[in-house]
């Protein structure tokens, strides 16, 4: 697992991102330790804002299911995501991931976000495509309360105070100094020399499936 640590400027605060699993379907584990800033953010909602490049996306339907079961709370910007779009025609995606308190550590928060790799153009060298995930930004929302300007500053975020609410509030960001600026996601890609074989197999499968559907319609269809 690759870990990107970010040391915050305010007295020992830190946030880390870690990629779990392999292949196209991964999990992004985000941890935040606010240190002294956590004492000021007591009772506030803590979130991580991360930007996913075109090579990665979050499935809105999967996220809605996780939100329904209170597993993961997050807001997607934009909220409409084309999960079938390839990397070279997809836009960047901003995710506001709401973090939950970590019972093993005071002033610590964490959350897991399912992240999927998009299909890339086939390559001839057999190497995986590289998708660079930038460091996350820690945000806090206190719904009217003010945080110390020493550790926090107002952030331009159009998002509700919680993952299950619609009320917008003022978010504050903690300044970060990245130790590692990027987290690398490796996505398998196809080989260009297999293009002809893939096209032929796809065509044959399409013709076969279409024939079976047409035969079933002709046999069982009611045309009266």
From TrEMBL:
Keyword Transmembrane helix appears in the UniProt entry: yes
The keyword Ribonucleoprotein appears for this protein: no
Transmembrane residue ranges: 195-218
One cellular component (GO) term of this entry: endoplasmic reticulum membrane
Coiled-coil regions listed: none
Topology of the protein relative to the lipid bilayer: Single-pass membrane protein
Chief place of localization: endoplasmic reticulum
GO terms classed as biological process: GPI anchor biosynthetic process
Pfam family, one: PIG-X
UniProt-annotated location(s): Endoplasmic reticulum membrane
Pathway(s): Glycolipid biosynthesis; glycosylphosphatidylinositol-anchor biosynthesis
Keywords: Endoplasmic reticulum, Glycoprotein, GPI-anchor biosynthesis, Membrane, Transmembrane, Transmembrane helix
The protein's role, per its UniProt record: Stabilizing subunit of the glycosylphosphatidylinositol-mannosyltransferase I complex which catalyzes the transfer of the first mannose, via an alpha-1,4 bond from a dolichol-phosphate-mannose (Dol-P-Man) to the glucosaminyl acyl phosphatidylinositol (GlcN-(acyl)PI) intermediate to generate alpha-D-Man-(1->4)-alpha-D-GlcN-(1->6)-(1-radyl,2-acyl-sn-glycero-3-phospho)-2-acyl-inositol and participates in the sixth step of the glycosylphosphatidylinositol-anchor biosynthesis. Probably acts by stabilizing the mannosyltransferase PIGM.
Sequence similarity: Belongs to the PIGX family.
Protein name per its UniProtKB record: Phosphatidylinositol-glycan biosynthesis class X protein
